[in-house]
Amino acid sequence: MKNRLISVALTLPLFSIIIFYDKVIYLFHMLILSISIFSASEIFYMAKVHRQKNLRTVITTMIAMVLGYAITMCGVSILKGDFSNLYKIVETKNPSMDLSLVMVFALIAVLFIINMFKVNVSTFEEKGRAILTAVFCFIYVGLGVWHISLMRFMPSGKYYIVFILLCSWLSDTGGYVVGRKLGKHKLSNSASPNKSYEGLVGMFLFTIPIGILYYFLYSKGYLTFILGKNIPNFSIQQIILLTSIFTLTGFLGDMGESLIKRMYDTKDSSKLFPGHGGVFDIFDSVILTAPISYYIFLLLQ
């Protein structure tokens, strides 16, 4: 717990400045891209893809994620050397996200091509597992995390990002505290034996009051200095419903990561952050919540 608090104290101020300070928007883009790349590399490491002589698959996926993020933010104008969208904040939905399906199929095609050669280097089973891991990393981790960037460009994007981070991270804290003290009925022995039904209830009991408090603070204008004047136009009933939805999606994302770690027989995705684990450990619940919340906010704004 001590290491966890130290890690939070050191990283949270810098993280907050990068996310919310408009004049360092290029650092924001680098942060979001780094989160997706580090998370993907940790999954590759847990799957031991790098040990199965499939380094070309890993490198190809990383290049695809960099190019995919640039296309997502800039559209096809990136192919002409136009990076202007990376240095300004737009207030409309970026249509380049519609290219995501094309990027996925392009990645799969490239992975098949580079794995057609030197089949004796690794077994077909290992190559197939590496390709599936690469596609999973690009679709789930890459496209999932990049929705934070798209959300950041919405008129009330800063408020939305704070909201989903509160729901994702504080619900995990509430579930851990309640589950550790009162947890008796296990949710899933196969995915995460430490999670309990009591902990799941604790997540909602802990997060919903926080969501209501957040609504009170931003609706009264107390957060405009940090998050801007584009205050979301949500009712208290909508906030409670959205808090419940994002708490659930955060829980499912966390359970998904637990299943992956159990599958690869590892405790943490890496040891990058003492007390937390790796980047994938920190953002597991956010990765699933970000795209779902983004499209909900699009419908409600």
Give structural notes.
With 301 residues, this protein is mostly helical. It has two domains: 22-153, no CATH class; 155-301, no CATH class. The protein has ten helices and two strands. Strands 1-2 form a two-stranded antiparallel sheet. It is globular, with a radius of gyration of 20 Å. The relative contact order is 0.13.
Short précis:
By secondary structure, the chain is an all-alpha fold.
Segments where pLDDT lies below 50 for 5+ residues?
A: 1-5, 88-95
Class derived from helix and strand content: mainly alpha
- Largest sheet at a glance? 2 strands, antiparallel
- Kindly provide the radius of gyration, computed on alpha-carbon positions and rounded to a whole number of angstroms: 20 Å
Number of strand elements = 2
Mean pLDDT: 81
SSE arrangement, N to C: HHHHHHEEHHHH
User: What's the number of structural domains?
Assistant: 2
SSE layout and pairings?
Blueprint: H1 2-20, H2 25-46, H3 55-74, H4 100-114, H5 124-152, H6 157-182, E1 186-188, E2 192-196, H7 197-219, H8 224-227, H9 236-263, H10 279-300
Antiparallel strand pairs: 1-2
Helix pairs in contact: 2-3, 2-5, 2-10, 3-4, 3-5, 4-5, 5-6, 5-10, 6-7, 6-9, 6-10, 7-9, 9-10
